[in-house]
Design goal:
Strand content: 15-25%
Shape: globular
Radius of gyration: 18 Å
Strand order of the largest sheet: 4-5-2-1-6-10-9
Number of helices: 10
Length: 268
Amino acid sequence: MHTKAGLSEQLKALEINPSGTLLVHSSLKSIGEVQGGADAVLDVLSEYMKDGLLVLPTHTWSYINATNPRFDVLNSPVCVGILPELFRRRPGVIRSWHPTHSVAALGKDAQAFIAGEESRDTPCSRDSVYGKLLDRKTDIMLLGVDLRRNTFIHGIEEWVDIPGRMTDDHELLYTVTPEGEEIAVPSRRHCGLSWSQHFWKVEQVLQEGGALRKGSFGDAVAMICGTVETTEILSRMLAVNPDLFSDNEPLNGEAVPEALPKTKRQIP
């Protein structure tokens, strides 16, 4: 059985900046048995990032839509796992007001980080929390999950304007604030293929380019993705091949070296 002390040591070994910003996508089951359960896992993450900002996705995209258009900041449950659901309810944690792609944040500058999300008409615009992750040079921790759960890659696709990723028209959604006010949020949605199911294919190139490193947290593999390096590499790859994530086939390695930063191309 894993303990908080043991998990804390593993977290330190991942060399995440404790005074920076950390976004965590997670699978609780993958971590294995932990003394204190899910709350102990959240305690470890929160204590490690006590001088920084800890962020977990609290998305509701699976059920907030034109036929069920009201996102309640305080009460709408998370559709991406138990750790984010428990995290959003913790004292001091605040949730952003985006109707489908909200996040919950705890720590330094949390209010400034989540502010204004109800004014974004796409899930991951450059001025959204996902763009702020890049500005903050954030690490993204994929805890027991792979790149298919890395919403930040949707952001990169949006910023370089890959066609066919978003609806042209808006659907009218509403955010219900903690005070009970309803705010209209006309929203464009992800559409087309399940693009994120194809994100796995760039794992090796991100690792070789210095954008991704691996370690352990409990029984889980923890992948740490740097937002700056990931954006640099994938923006280059998408410029060469906008259809990079249009199929589920492994990468053709011929174009990969040109996508890597110059300082990384000599990695054997």
